[in-house]
Design brief:
The protein contains one helix and two strands; from the N terminus they run H-E-E. The chain has one domain. 34% of the residues lie in helices and 9% in strands. The protein is elongated, with a radius of gyration of 28 Å. With 65 residues, the chain is an alpha+beta fold.
């Protein structure tokens, strides 16, 4: 009886410890993307071309039948 009680207690302690260890893993904060910068000089939708001071607007239209 003592042996079974000890095994059950040990199993319960192991489950609690493993659950606590998994809960401690916090998600890492993602680094900011540095190669895409918004160009507010011309308005919405404009972005700087990486490595230059030039702004460009990306957009388009798609029609399908």
């Amino acid at each position: 009886m003592r042996f079974v009680k000890g095994i059950l207690l040990g199993a319960a302690a192991t489950l609690v410890a493993s659950a606590a260890a998994q809960a401690a893993d916090l998600p890492l904060k993602a680094k900011a993307v540095e190669y895409v910068k918004v160009c507010s000089l011309y308005g919405a939708g404009f972005y700087y071309i990486p490595g230059t001071d030039t702004c460009i607007k990306l957009g388009g239209y798609l029609r399908a039948e």
